[in-house]
Amino acid sequence: MFKRLLLVTAMLAATTGFAAEKWKVTSLDWQPFSGKALPEGGAGIAVLRAALKAEGIELEVQFYPWTRAIETAKDATYAGFYPAWPEDVPAGFSASAVVFKSPVGLVEPKSKPLTWTKLEDLKGKKIGTVQDYGNTPEFMKLIKDGVIKTEIVSDDLTNVKKVAGERIDAAFIDLANLDYFLKNDAKDLASKVQANKKVIDTKDLVLAVNGSFSNKKAAAILNSGLAKINADQIIKDYMAKYIK
């Protein structure tokens, strides 16, 4: 009887006492890396999920427009928002280890390609940006100093459309994001726009960790999980499987 009681107690502990920890993060529609309609939530989400799974943690992702994603993630019940460039990480959050990397550059009209050596050469051009995106420090400084003129919109796809209509000279964009658009949402514009031949930078993508999140070791846990997976291979496999 005593042995049976111990067995029942152990079974109850296994089913109720050791439920997997769950992290909530906010994200945005930023294909192919994140998106509510994407398989597995996107390639970048697949990497974050795999890293947390390696640490026995489940991932819940809630998708919002970018500015709302940041605001929502300020609640202490959220682990943070993702994916973010380090320049996007505001006060009250900290940047995790790098989860993956992706190149950024300019989308331009095919009929009016830009020639430049350094960003200052874009003086006088009207460049599209997305609200609350950090872009790169050098690019943002040139905006602040009035060297580069910008028009701000709420999402990247709007910028691609504005470039196609030649309403702006170019737009700052993640090049994998642009490639996705030209194969999917904006494939009708593929004959009108292209990536400028010069890459501006290769950006780190991180989880912006909420400083008030109940798990104070969140960054260390994620770092440990990332060391156990091959992020580049996960993204490569995802692209081959889902992004045509």
Question: Can you walk through the features of this model?
Answer:
It is a single chain. This protein is of the alpha/beta class and 244 residues long. Strands 1, 2, 3, 4, 5, 6, 7, 8, 9 and 10 form a 10-stranded mixed sheet that branches. Helix 2 (43-53) packs across helix 7 and helix 2 (43-53) packs across helix 8. The chain is globular. The chain has helices spanning 2-17, 43-53, 66-72, 137-144, 156-164, 175-183, 218-226, 231-242, and strands at residues 21-27, 57-63, 80-84, 93-95, 100-109, 126-130, 149-153, 170-174, 193-195, 201-210. It is 33% helix and 25% strand.
Chart the SSEs and their pairings.
Layout: H1 2-17, E1 21-27, H2 43-53, E2 57-63, H3 66-72, E3 80-84, E4 93-95, E5 100-109, E6 126-130, H4 137-144, E7 149-153, H5 156-164, E8 170-174, H6 175-183, E9 193-195, E10 201-210, H7 218-226, H8 231-242
Parallel strand pairs: 1-2, 1-3, 6-7, 6-8
Antiparallel strand pairs: 3-10, 4-10, 5-8, 5-9, 5-10
Helix pairs in contact: 2-7, 2-8
From the structure above, extract its key features.
single chain; 244 residues; alpha/beta; ten-stranded mixed β-sheet; 10 strands; 25% strand
Give a brief outline of the structure.
The protein has 244 residues and is α/β, with parallel strands linked by helices.
